[in-house]
Every structure is written in C-alpha cells, then in structure tokens.
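[Automated response] Your request has been received and processed.

Submitted sequence:
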Amino acid sequence: MANQNGQSMFLTADEVSQLTGRRQKSKQVEQLQAMQIPHTVDCFNRPKVLRSVVQMGLCGMSAVGFDKSAEKQAKINTSPMPQ
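Generated structure:
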C-alpha cells in the first residue's frame, strides 16, 4: 500500500537496516526495541516499521515512546497535548 507520495507505508528492508545500523533481522528488532521505535514483525520475522512513525520521530513529534523530548515539553506546557 502506498501513501500520497507513492511510498510504501512501511520502511523498506534497506531503510530498516539503515535506521538500525544492523543487517540481521533479530538484531534489527533488538535495536528498534532499544531505540523505543514502535514496530511489528511479519511472518518471516522481518521487522515492520511505519514510515509515519519514523517521520514523526525525526520531526520531534511524539510517537509512543519514540521521542522523550515530547514528554519533557508536556510537563512544561500547561495545555494538554493533542492525542
């Protein structure tokens, strides 16, 4: 499935390897867990990472544990963060 830009909604295997710095699938999963990046594993034990999660994290937006700076900012702001 492609998004508006014609890209897959998931990172490619090469992109996951580049993101984690690992080639082995099990090591990629370990690294994604260490980086607190939400992911799943397909039936071939390949890690699947949503492109939007990585894009949000790289932009400094919160993505379920991916960016701890959003937690710090939430404590500073008096208004609630959007869900």
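Summary generated for your ticket: The chain has one domain: 13-76. The mean pLDDT is 80.
If you did not submit this request, please reply to this message.
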